[in-house]
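### Sample
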Amino acid sequence: MNEFHWKPEYWSGLQKREKAIIIAGIDIRVREEERARKKAESEAKRRR
């Protein structure tokens, strides 16, 4: 919510489906960031 600058009232006003889509998008982003972090760590180890 903070990243989108949404107030709690806005979030509570969303329908369940809308919340589910937003949460799924956040999950995908977190997964992609984790993959990128692991890839960067792997490449850093290879350069040693």
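The chain has a mean pLDDT of 92. This sample (Phage protein) is used throughout the tutorial notebook.
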